[in-house]
Design goal:
The structure is a homodimer. Chain A is built from 13 helices and two strands; from the N terminus they run H-H-H-H-E-E-H-H-H-H-H-H-H-H-H. By secondary structure, the first copy, chain A, is mostly helical. The first copy, chain A, has one domain: Farnesyl Diphosphate Synthase. A two-stranded antiparallel sheet of chain A has the order 1-2. The longest helix of chain A has 28 residues. Chain A starts with 5 loop residues before the first helix and ends with a helix. The interface between A and B is large, with 56 and 56 residues.
């Protein structure tokens, strides 16, 4: 871990991710659809999910992947970012969180109208599956199908969308810690977890590594949400790039409202340790990027 | 054609489709998500897209498909119906068409609220891709990946979602016939076309048959929309199961507003002939179901 420069690694990877998104998110989609899709995806965000895909891929495949493998990993990285982006577009809409600021910019429905945001979100979700199934590609069919299946399960009714439904139904309710964990495991955790496993599938990793990476992703996913809740009460809107204090204002249950600030901080720490332990059981030797990413999730300020 | 009973064939197939949807659209999704998804999909609709998948599949594979082939066809049939259902849920929302009646029932947002409808639509789209990628299945990976790719392209920015964006941008505009055709080729045609081709892919059909079926699907897709526009001005709300006269009220361009009622009827007839001709060039011998479906599209009353 010591000596490894996560910042440099991320900068290099993100350059490739941004180039790929720039190429793959169409600017020739009809009417305002293309501009709205690109507005929602390009130029913004931490890109944590793509970084997790690529870090996991790198841990599994080493330094000399084949070209089809690398292409699969980059497509997976971009596909999961598109799912994340679509969920934010729909989440921000007036009938959901009614948020007007995202990544320091007006939200998509503010800029393109509600119907435009609805359609852009829909088309971003579809595009994710399009990216994973290129025609005339050397990516093996089983990798393509495997990635589609993982993404659909992570994003769907038993994953992200299910978590959002629980979230929606729980406003104003006092959830138990168990209920809150279940909600976040679906709402945020499922997609982070899926990112890590998609990297392994792109690399055609063995079962032991894949299972360990799943455990790592599960712990990291919940830790991310705990830190999110902490930042919601401790960070400024200007640093966060979205409206701070929003959850408390909406009377939403959070780890902080349930465990207190200090309790939430301890919980994040515990989950980070759990993520590191999972890596130790992976049978993989080159996990420093994943280790550093887990530390970053814990220490991030926005 | 003579002697073939489309009604009996459809009834038999639809029984299987309804059973499959009943099984695959989850009732245990969290909070109201499961009920809203099932409300949107079960018990309603003409199921034209599933019937097209199954008719195309049957034309390609004959009477003795293998079990994995049949499973692939049924999964494709249900997946495309889920995409259709999601698009209706989102289309009906207040920020889009603001419709309160669909298939004779209150629309999803009327019943489950706007946020519930937004999420249900999102999760239905995801579920479509989940259905196409079963784990522990004997469906070949290349069929799974091929079906996902087709569905994503038909539903996405260059297909259905793109058509909806054009539609949205064109309200109050006088489109040319060419622009109108392009809009409908995307908005409605793409998914109908995709249905037919998915049937061929599930059957692992040859290139000649697949290409001919694509042409059939293209012509049928546009014919369907022309008839839809005709019914919007000639049918009662009670027969239609949705609000009639809606397009004219919204000042939307239609084939009828552009060609007149008689001109639109001639156009539908011309497209039906085109669809039949495509079948004649398919090299397939058993196309009577597809022929009958094309006739039905032309003669339907709702």
């Amino acid at each position: 871990m010591s000596g490894f420069d996560l910042q440099a690694w991320s900068t290099q990877q993100l350059l490739l991710v941004e180039q790929a998104l720039e190429q793959w998110v169409p600017n020739d989609a009809p009417a305002d659809l293309g501009p709205a899709m690109r507005y929602a995806v390009l130029d913004g965000g931490k890109r944590l999910r793509p970084l997790l895909v690529l870090a996991s891929f790198e841990a599994c495949v080493g330094k000399t992947p084949t070209a089809p493998m690398s292409e699969a990993a980059m497509r997976a990285a971009c596909a999961i970012e598109l799912i994340h982006a679509y969920s934010l577009v729909h989440d921000d809409m007036p009938c959901m969180d009614n948020d007007v600021l995202r990544r320091g910019k007006p939200t998509v429905h503010v800029k393109f109208g509600e119907a435009g945001a609805l359609l852009a979100g829909d088309a971003l979700q579809t595009l994710a599956f399009e990216l994973l199934t290129p025609s005339n590609s050397e990516i093996p069919s089983q990798v393509q199908a495997g990635l589609c299946g993982l993404l659909a399960r992570g994003a769907g009714h038993a994953g992200m969308a299910g978590g959002q439904a629980i979230d929606l139904a729980s406003v104003g309710d006092q959830l138990t810690l168990e209920q809150l964990q279940h909600m976040h495991r679906c709402k945020t955790g499922a997609l982070l977890e899926t990112s890590v496993v998609m990297g392994a599938v792109a690399a055609q990793a063995n079962a032991q590594a894949t299972q360990a990476l799943l455990s790592y992703g599960q712990a990291l996913g919940v830790a991310f949400q705990v830190v999110d809740d902490i930042l919601d009460v401790t960070a400024d809107t200007s640093v966060l790039g979205k409206t701070a204090g929003k959850d408390a204002d909406n009377d939403k249950p959070t780890y902080v409202s349930l465990l207190g600030l200090q309790g939430a901080q301890q919980e994040a720490q515990r989950l980070a340790v759990q993520a590191q332990q999972a890596l130790a059981h992976s049978g993989l030797t080159d996990t420093q990027v994943l280790q550093s990413l887990a530390n970053w999730v814990l220490q991030r300020k926005h």
